[in-house]
Amino acid sequence: MEKKFILTEKDFILKNTNTPILHNGSFTCKSPSNIALIKYWGKSELQIPKNPSISFTLNNCHTITTLEYSEKKSSSQDFEITVFFEGTLNEEFKPKIELFFKRIVTYVPFISNFNFIIKTENSFPHSSGIASSASGFSALAMCLMSMEKEFNSQITEEYLIKKASFLARLGSGSAARSIQGPIVVWGKHPEIENSSNLYGTLFPFKLHPIFENYHDVILLVYKGEKKISSTVGHNLMHEHPYAKQRFIQANDNLSKLIEILKNGHLNSFISLVESEALTLHAMMLTSDPYFILMKPNTLKIIEKIWDYRKNNDSNICFTLDAGANIHVLFPDEEREKSLGFIEKELLEFCENNHFISDNLGKGAEVIS
What we know:
Layout: E1 24-38, E2 43-44, E3 48-49, E4 53-71, E5 80-85, E6 88-89, H1 94-104, E7 114-122, H2 132-151, H3 157-169, E8 183-186, E9 200-202, E10 215-219, H4 230-235, H5 243-263, H6 266-285, H7 296-312, E11 317-320, E12 326-330, H8 335-346, E13 355-359, E14 365-366
Parallel strand pairs: 5-7
Antiparallel strand pairs: 1-4, 1-14, 2-3, 4-7, 4-8, 5-6, 8-9, 10-12, 10-13, 11-12
Helix pairs in contact: 2-3, 5-6
C-alpha cells in the first residue's frame, strides 16, 4: 500500500538544474493502456479532471517507447524531436509531443539540453478507442524519469512513480492511470485518502478475490481513426447542460464502486460499469455539437451481451471508452464460457474478426 501523503505541484519541480553528466544514450520503457470503469469526461486547464475516475490497468495492450537522447551542440531552447511510429517517420505525433515537452519543461528542465529521437510502437491499433495516448505518454514519461534518475539517484521509487504519473497526465489525462496497476484512481475523492488530481493512486483497499484476475476482451468493431478526438469531446463539457449532474454522479458512482471492488458483488458491478459506459456516450450525444462514436455493430454486440447474460446466468458485461470498440469484462471462473460466446456470436461484428484478449496488468516498466 502507498504511504499516506500527497505531493503538490512544487514537489515535482526538479531542484537540481545542473546539466547532468549525460551526453547520449537511450531508455526503453513499456507501458499499458487502461480501461476506465468510472469515466472522466471534462477537464480544466493542464489536464485537471472535473471528476475522479478509476480504471483497470491492462496487460497486453501496451506501448513500447525508446527515447534516444544526444547532447545539444547549440544553446537553442527549441526542442529538437524526431518521432518514429512503428518504424516509420511520423510528423503527425510531433506537435503533440512538442506541446507535452513545453508543459513539462518546468519539472524536467534538463530536456532543453538534448535532442531526442522517439521510437514508439503499439500492440494494438492507434486512435481506435483503445487508450493509445495513455500508454504512449506514460511510456514516454517513464523514459524521462529514467533519465532524471541517472543524475538524481536519491529519488525514491515511490517518488519516481508519482512524478511519472504527474508528467504523463500533462500529455494525456488518462495516462496518469497507466503507470501502475492493477486498479488506479485518478482525481481527488474523499474516500481515497491519498488521491490527487495531479497523479494516479493505486486502489488502497483489499480487492475481493473475484477481481484479482478479471478479463477484458477488446472487440475491434472499428479500427479506423475516430471522427472526433477525446480532447475535443472533453472541451465540449464546458458548456454541457448536464455537466454538473454528471460530475456529481461520477463521484457518487466511485463511492459505490469502491465498496463493490471490496465485497465482490458482481450484479452491482455489472450495472454500474455498463451505466457508466452508456453515460459517457450520452454526454457525447447531448453535447453541442453532438456526435456519435459508436457504430451499428457496437449496439449489436451490446444487445447480444445482454441477451446472453439473461439466458445463461452469466456475469459477462461491457464497457466502452471514447470510441466504437467494446471491452467485454468477465471473471476468470467464466473465462472458457465467455470466450466461447465471444468467438461464436460476437466476432462477426468485428473488423476482420479481430479481438484482443487481455487481463489486469501491473503498470509501466523500464525494459532497458
